[in-house]
Protein: ABC2-1 family ABC transporter ATPase
Organism: Cuniculiplasma divulgatum
Amino acid sequence: MMELEAANLSKKYGNFYALQDFNLDVHKGECVALLGPNGAGKSTLLKISTNIIHPTRGTLKIAGINVQDDPMKALEKVGPLVELPEFYPYLNGTEILNFVCKVKGASKEKIKDEIERLSSMLKMEEFINKKSGSYSRGMKQRLALACSMTMDPELLILDEPTFGLDPRGMREFIEIIREINVKEGKTVILSTHLISEAREIADKVVIINHGTKMLEMKNERETNLMNVTFYSKPEASTLETSSIKVIEDHGNTVTIQRDENISNDDVIDYFREKNLKIRWIEPTNQIERKYLELIN
Ligand SMILES: Nc1ncnc2c1ncn2[C@@H]1O[C@H](COP(=O)(O)OP(=O)(O)OP(=O)(O)O)[C@@H](O)[C@H]1O
């Protein structure tokens, strides 16, 4: 069964479609990144998924249950993080988690276990007993993730989870989410406007813009593509061998794809042998290429 399933989902504000005929399947254990610029419709999809807003048409099912028909049941095993979290500043992390667990009906012993489990998993030991008013954005974000993970949900729905974090905080947070996905086996759907983030974390990347799905593709974590910029425009034929293909030609810059059996260094050596003067090289990947092609 699909963990999350959007079928012909649309959300209209007046004459404007924030989301239009959107289809998506998220399998159990998968990590899916919704990638798109501001206003693309990512939050709209995630808010419909968590029943914060209702679709104009179409259906959104979680574990086979229509969220609109039976939100309590559909969202029972969902951990949402969909708005910038704020907490009562005079409560500490333990008190906040305690409250959330209580609302979800956990027993005293269970609450104690949950707080210990989450505090260690999300590396919150150092600050969990300090007042949340003193937390940095990153600490608040961890506490928010801990709240959404209380009582062990199967599916995490995270709207721009690294928004507002500094580069180091972003990296740490992404690593935590990846661990939850890979080690704990939780299904994750998250939104981001950063290509690098989508590439780092997702199994599947869905590019979204103007409320529609532009592309859905498997994420290859290893890349065998690079953009090579030469001092002067080379002949495509001098660049190609049985192991090196030119897949795009933009004058001085070409995108080349190498076979798995040679390395990037081999490619550079080959160009040097041919006396082709290289000015700049950067790795690229299909997601980046497609994103720039579709969004710009
Ligand atoms: N309540 C509303 N009334 C009218 N338009 C809305 C409303 N909520 C969202 N929109 C519009 O719908 C579009 C999609 O918004 P959405 O928040 O889903 O984008 P997003 O991809 O999450 O972008 P961001 O990264 O900025 O959050 C935007 O153009 C937004 O202005």
About this structure: The chain has ten helices and 14 strands. The domain at 2-218 is CATH 3.40.50.300 (Rossmann fold).
